[in-house]
Specification:
- The protein is of the alpha+beta class and about 120 residues long.
- The chain has 5 helices and 3 strands, in the order H-E-H-H-H-E-E-H.
- A 3-stranded antiparallel sheet has the order 1-3-2.
- Strand 2 and strand 3 form a beta hairpin.
- The longest helix is centred in the last third of the chain and has 32 residues.
- The chain is elongated.
- The protein starts with a helix and ends with a helix.
C-alpha cells in the first residue's frame, strides 16, 4: 500500500514528527534517524538521510529550528545539533492542534463509512 496518496500522508506528517523529536531535546541527525527507524518504521517506512536532512534544512531556513556545531567524540569531526526556536515551539503547538482536529474529522468520516458499508 505504497501508492502516491500514502506517500503524501507520510510527507505531510514527517515535518511535524521531526519537530516533536527536536522539541524533546537538542538532538543530531543520526539520533533523529535512529528514533524514526526504531519507533516509526512500521508505518513511516525506513527513514534515510536523503529524506530527513532536506526537511531539517527547510525547518532551519523557516526559523523553526536552530543549529549548533559541537565536536564529535568518536571521530574527531563535528556534529550538528538541532533545537527548537520559539517560533518552532509555537508552530509545533499549532500543528498538533490542527492534527488533532484533522484526525477527529477524518475519523468521523471513516466511522460513518464503516457503519454504512460494513
Amino acid at each position: 500500500m505504497e501508492g502516491k496518496y500514502v506517500q503524501q500522508f507520510k510527507k505531510g506528517s514527517l515535518e511535524m514528527i521531526l519537530l516533536c523529536l527536536i522539541a524533546q531535546k537538542e538532538t543530531y541527525g543520526y539520533e533523529i534517524l535512529t528514533q524514526l527507524n526504531e519507533n516509526g518504521a512500521a508505518v513511516l517506512g525506513y527513514a534515510r538521510e536523503g529524506t530527513i536532512y532536506p526537511i531539517l534544512y527547510r525547518l532551519q531556513e523557516a526559523g523553526l529550528v536552530t543549529t549548533r556545531m559541537a565536536p564529535a567524540a568518536a571521530n574527531g569531526g563535528s556534529k550538528k545539533y538541532y533545537s527548537l526556536t520559539a517560533k518552532g515551539q509555537e508552530t509545533l503547538k499549532e500543528l498538533i492542534e490542527f492534527w488533532e482536529d484533522y484526525s477527529r474529522c477524518v475519523n468521523w468520516f471513516i466511522k460513518q463509512y464503516k457503519e454504512e458499508t460494513l
